[in-house]
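Troubleshooting entry. The earlier prediction with UD2 gave an output that would not parse, so I re-checked the input for stray whitespace and re-submitted. Clean input:
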Amino acid sequence: TVVCTVVIYKTLENIPNIKDSEPAELQRKISVKKSVSSYNEKIDWHNYDTIRKDANRTGTGEQGAPAYLTSSENENYEALFKVNGFNAALSDKIALDRSLPDIRHKQCKAKKYLSKLPSVSVIVPFHNEHWTTLLRTATSVIKRSPPELLKEIILVDDFSSKEFSKKPLDDYLAVNFTKVTALHLPERSGLIRARLAGAKVATGDVLIFLDSHTECNVNWLPPLLEPIAQDYKVCVCPFIDVIQYETFEYRAQDEGARGAFDWEFFYKRLPLLPEDLKHPAEPFKSPVMAGGLFAISAKFFWELGGYDEGLDIWGGEQYELSFKIWQCGGEMYDAPCSRVGHIYRKYAPFPNPGKGDFVGRNYRRVAEVWMDEYAQYLYMRRPHYKAINPGDLSKQKGLRKKLNCKPFKWFMETVAFDLPLKYPPIEPDDFGFGEIRNLAVPELCVDSGYKERDQVVNIATCIKENNKKGEQNFTLTWHKDIRVKGKTLCFDVSDPNDKADITLYPCHGQQGNQYWRYDVEKQWFLHGGNPRCLDCDPGSLKLFVTTCDENSKTQKWRFENVNLT
Ligand code: UD2
Ligand code: MN
């Protein structure tokens, strides 16, 4: 087996020359195939002892069941929820080594993996993570990883201000663990540079990144490592399960999907492909990682230059690394048999550390370096990104050139081929906007009078002529509702009776009581599916809807700007 070990590790060390005439990429694939076929003994990596003991556990949160605080335990609930965005008081009542339900596909239970797998450094960046969720992350890694594969866990403290994050943490780790250390950064660096700091000191063949509020499930490690042992340019993500922020219940988010994004850069998912569905326990290709949880060989990570260290605080690094992996000769997979739970917070409790729109700047950097002409799709939805100064990009652009990375077009057509370019669709033009002026009494305009929700809209003297106070700027949007400028209040009519009031109500975009059209020829504002006309009483200044009447002049309105296309 000693000889074989050397062969396997060769794929991680260097690329042997097979045929000099072959392109480098093909050579790599051939060499990988050879080394694997020469040694491919597979074994069952399950730790049945731990599985058996876990099955017998009972208590708060055990087996991933939803848990609740008793009224006597409720004391710190609110204060702790507020600073964490999840039920940290409940976390304190749940064992650090709690049992989890094995919700893998049943084929995973019978799967074997290569007997020789690379060693691992787990890197966990954290900023003000709650004590027990942080320690439960480390504990679950230790508990469910084969010790011979796990070299170390590095908790990278991104300049936390919580008292226990420094010496008490170091002391706790020294007493309770042998493989877990904390690296304290001297200034707030953001999660991207925190991960880089951890990766720089890591000694394992493979780097695994985790968020600081995660729990690794049964046999999570071998499915992440095997594809990397077979090809060091493969990055593998686990399935990310949901730890519910209120009850700590552990459950699946869905049956699996391919990671993607929309053109506002929200993380989205694409359906599995037919061939993926045929092999529910096999890794499948995924265009983009969720970001927090993945395994990559240290060799490939550093060949790719790690992360762009110009990315600050939070956001965008998942796209940067995913694009880089694909465009620069690697591949990315999701492994269904590796599952890790993650607390999706109710809200992010951290204040902006005074760095402005760091997410926008990060996105701009990623778009400028990697996305070529497709960056325009992002800028179309977020025009203000074009005004953000991304800072110096020469190093990133140099790297892309040096590694001879493929164009983004290749990524879009080959990897994310089913990601629609109109996603989300750009909003159609509005039908019209501006003042709504009556024809019977042309100095009268519809006026919302700085009113709030549930208040009635009337008419008033048009501001333009008399320069009086008022609020007379409205938009007939493509949703077919009438919105008060600068507000998200819409003209709403719920009364079916004659001369029904127009009330301000939050816009829902679902038409119904907020459904309006403008008839350009008749100059009518029509409300509802069984249309009534906007009308007014110039004497009382009341506005209402009533049966349409071709002869009525008070039902005619001049809408200042009408978009006729
Ligand atoms: C998701 C990812 C997260 C990251 C982020 C985009 C998952 C499950 N999570 O958001 O890993 O890719 O998208 O950037 O895929 N942290 C620091 N310093 C900071 C801010 C955060 O160390 O200045 C730590 C934080 O304690 C946590 C990790 O970075 O361990 C990710 O932050 P998050 O949990 O707020 O991100 P999340 O899960 O909303
Ligand atoms: Mn997270």
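This one parsed fine. The longest helix spans residues 24-38.
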